Amino acid sequence: MTLRQLRAFLAVTRTGSFTLAAESLYITQSALSGLIKELEQGLGVRLLDRSTRRIQLSEIGRGIHPLIEKILADLDGALDELANIKALKQGVVRIAAPQLMACTLLPDVIAAFARDYPNITIRLTDCAVESVTSRVFSGEVDLGVGPERDPNSDIDAALLFALPFHAVFHREHPLADAESVCWAELANHPLITLQGQFTERLSIDLHNVVRGLDLNPNATVTFMSTALSMVAAGLGATICIPYAASLVRLYGLSMRPLVAPEVFRRFHIFTRSGRSLSPAAEAFRDHLTRYVREHAGFSVEGMRKQ
Known about the structure:
- This protein is of the alpha/beta class.
- Helix content is 44%, strand content 23%.
- The chain contains 12 helices and 13 strands.
- The chain has a 6-stranded mixed β-sheet, sandwiched between helices.
- A hairpin with a 4-residue loop joins strand 1 and strand 2.
- The longest helix is centred in the N-terminal third of the chain and has 28 residues, at 59-86.
- The termini are far apart.
């Protein structure tokens, strides 16, 4: 059986006429008759009883007609759904991102994407930095966004942007009037940092550039929102990436570039190696890349190296 044969059979039963059925399928009447004959020969049964006055279903034809009708209806439905997915008229994109990025940068990105593709559903998972790539690997999400990780052959990492670290402190902090802050100056004041690889990688970067310059935080926390709350309470300064400026302002705090040395943190889009993205996920990935370049002012090209 072929789809053309099945569609010819339904067209004849729908119109009750070989002439009308052929016209509806944009084929000749002889071609239509050939398709019906091939179908009956392939099945080994007669599906239509023909007479000079009318065409009607045989007993076997009446039994098989609902099944063929359902098969083609299901297939047409699947093809329509696929066409909508390809045309970005429907679809779901699942994203994992660190909690700080999920509450600062990504809401604006998602809102802009929704204006262009209102029928695409975005499901954002805010999580710890360390679990972003594991969620990509497990298939829980289509893509992840976050800071650079150790290379993994199962994960593809495409550079999204790179931004320098900034110091964040209360507006009455001794360093609040400075246009920029040296790392050595910051180290002389109480410091609150994030736990895990955030501080570990930063300490390594600093130590590689300036021997003897180490971070010795007075407190470490899991989320940046906690660090900012402690800074707002006057318990010390913290370190973050400038895409979090909206949250820093919300806490009424000041942000200054950290220099001597200027240290960058690179952020990537993570996907599973060897696994293609859906059209909707591809569209969001491209949109995110354009957004950070055109609207957020992040620069990928010409990045300064440490």
